[in-house]
């Protein structure tokens, strides 16, 4: 009488959770400042002061009904308008508010997008390494997730494998660039090749293949990195965005869907999102957060620390002999473990109070993820631990 | 390639929306203050000043990461603890934080509760008149909604009809007291009878039947009305609560699930809610709103205006010859239309700038809903319009 499918999910021990639990216990002994916690992707930089100022202005305004009342099911019109204008201005596109649906973060956006363009049994293709939550997002929408193996030299798209998997059952392709967990940004070349391949397949199959582009890390791109705006290259693009990382608002559940105005079904899809909401208990993202975000729509938190941390870690780890694609953005990097079994590797790292996440659940065994959204001074202090860990393996090789 | 089920939902013309659209157009001509809009259940009283003060304190605190960061998937622990303590204190119960899941309003709570205790094809029984959104909430969870016809003399439970419908396929019963749209509160006698009947059926069928109690109007109960706390009477109760109405925060999407500690599966159900979230794009209710609500957990907005409005309208309408069960709470009342076709009746009411909602979609044709969450002075000004409308029908009878 209890839904077994969810009960079963509870039984699956999460490696990430085990590591986090170990970290909490260890912190009690040696202090949290001495646990080098690279496990969680929680933004570490403060929200911009301007956001706080606007939030306070709204909270203390004379019309609390308007501030805290229901928003329309597609989002507050003025907010949708500001999102559309910002996207159009920044990426030279033609978004209007009719192309925007306000969502509860990228998770909410993906839940809506997947339900809009797939029905039961349809296939959705994504690329390893991928955010493990894609599995429940896709499966619980009724579709089936197919995963293209990773191209581990640069973590761009493995087209040879991809092409084999695109059958007429595929209704959507789900990408995440800049990527969690690899930190890699798909190049213009990759996106162009992907777009032209998908358009060819659309013609061949006689139906649309939607490109669902999950972009919570869009604003965290490092210097001189080629980071194309995906929708520019493919009409049937549904962009899923979150302000979680760009404004350090992960807990406030605010993001949006933007459907490329070039997509014939754009307005229909947006309106359908309002209907999809009715079944999943989403009414709207919090009203006051919608309004506050719209006031700082072109701002970001000071994200520079992420590139600083990346540079320190990338240099040190490659020096120590780790293989690692250089991140172009995000606050993740994705080195190869020093032994085949990344779970064993990450367990050994705990000896030096390094909390690393094995990438098996990201569809890429043998690698591990580091979330370096932690203070730079802590990153620096952690280097000794990495040296000790690497030395362990060198000694082992010699013996 | 577009999900037809949601596309179709778009095609269904909503009577409420038509009425609201008429109202907006009419407001342009005669001013919104002259349109007597009883169509929408948007709380009209301001949030308590204490809530605003706490919200501002949180927003300007020195730890923005802790305020705006991800909350755990079951909700912030300290918030769950405060909810549990408040419920236990107020209703003499034994809730602990392990029995509480923080949800995005009552809609989010219901979406989770339904998925936790039903699987595809199970039946959920509710009672007319009922909130129309129950249909997508239940159907999109995979279960099937069955509706017990209304007991129109007092809008308590129609047990004769209910008993016929409780087959072994029924895994949950969904009630809403105080009720939208009738305004009626289920009496202790009703709840006791319901509880004892369900316990008898649980024994007969050999499986639990969960009582999902949707309680967004719990704090809006009028003087001397018998308003029992449902869970007190039935162990397998899942209470779905929202702060939308009690604190006038409808847009901020904050509420909770509380599973009766007497329910054997209580903690399991709460933990499952964390898994259910993964498929529907809910991560948590907004962090800062969770924290702010917890600080004013035992407060409500000044809700007295709703009883004032109810009394004025109830007296006038019954004087004019309307049949109406006296509301015991909420900000709704539910009179019988003056002709059989409530849609035609509500259309005629528009002539006098009265926006009323025919109750066909609430499963109770021939009645109409009035949401009197509007200023009292406007309620008073609307009485002339009701008199004119009633007179229309009197003249018709005579002719």
UniProtKB/TrEMBL annotation, chains A, B:
Keywords from the named record: Aminotransferase, Transferase
Q: What is its EC number?
A: 2.6.1.-
Which molecular function GO terms apply here?
pyridoxal phosphate binding; transaminase activity
- Enzyme class, spelled out: transferase
Q: Where is the Aminotransferase class I/classII large domain?
A: 39-383
Which cofactors? pyridoxal 5'-phosphate
What family does the entry list?
Belongs to the class-I pyridoxal-phosphate-dependent aminotransferase family.
The protein in question is named Aminotransferase
Q: Please tell me the species this chain comes from.
A: Terrilactibacillus tamarindi
């Amino acid at each position: 009488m209890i839904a077994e499918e969810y009960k079963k999910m509870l039984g699956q021990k999460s490696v990430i959770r085990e590591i986090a639990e170990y970290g909490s216990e260890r912190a009690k002994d040696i202090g949290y400042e001495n646990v080098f916690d690279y496990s969680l992707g929680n933004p570490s930089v403060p929200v911009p002061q301007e956001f706080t100022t606007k939030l306070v202005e709204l909270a203390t305004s004379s019309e609390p009904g308007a501030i805290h009342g229901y928003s329309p099911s597609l989002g507050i019109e003025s907010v949708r308008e500001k999102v559309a204008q910002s996207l159009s201005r920044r990426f030279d596109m033609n978004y209007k508010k009719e192309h925007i649906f306000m969502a509860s973060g990228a998770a909410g956006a993906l839940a809506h997008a997947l339900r809009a363009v797939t029905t039961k049994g349809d296939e959705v293709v994504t690329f390893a390494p991928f955010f493990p939550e894609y599995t429940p997002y896709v499966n619980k929408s009724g579709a089936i997730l197919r995963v293209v193996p990773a191209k581990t030299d640069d973590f761009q798209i493995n087209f040879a494998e991809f092409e084999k998997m695109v059958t007429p059952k595929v209704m959507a392709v789900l990408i995440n660039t800049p990527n969690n967990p690899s930190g890699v940004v798909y190049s213009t070349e990759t996106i162009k090749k992907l777009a032209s391949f998908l358009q060819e397949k659309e013609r061949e199959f006689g139906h649309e293949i939607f490109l669902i582009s999950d972009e919570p890390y869009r604003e965290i791109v490092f210097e001189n990195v080629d980071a194309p705006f995906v929708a520019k290259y493919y009409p049937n693009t549904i962009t899923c965005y979150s302000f979680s990382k760009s404004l350090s608002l992960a807990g406030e559940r605010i993001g949006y869907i933007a459907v490329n105005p070039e997509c014939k079904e754009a307005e229909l899809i947006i309106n359908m999102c309002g209907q999809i909401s009715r079944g999943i208990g989403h009414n709207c993202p919090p009203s006051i957060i919608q309004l506050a975000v719209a006031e700082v729509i072109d701002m970001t938190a000071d994200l520079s620390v992420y590139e600083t941390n990346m540079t320190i870690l990338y240099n040190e780890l490659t020096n120590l002999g780790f293989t690692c694609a250089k991140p172009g953005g995000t606050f993740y990097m994705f080195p190869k473990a020093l032994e085949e079994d990344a779970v064993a590797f990450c367990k050994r790292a705990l000896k030096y109070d390094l909390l690393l996440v094995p990438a098996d659940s990201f569809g890429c065994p043998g690698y591990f993820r580091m979330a370096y959204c932690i203070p730079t001074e802590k990153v620096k202090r952690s280097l000794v631990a990495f040296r000790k860990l690497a030395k362990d393996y060198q000694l082992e090789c010699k013996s």
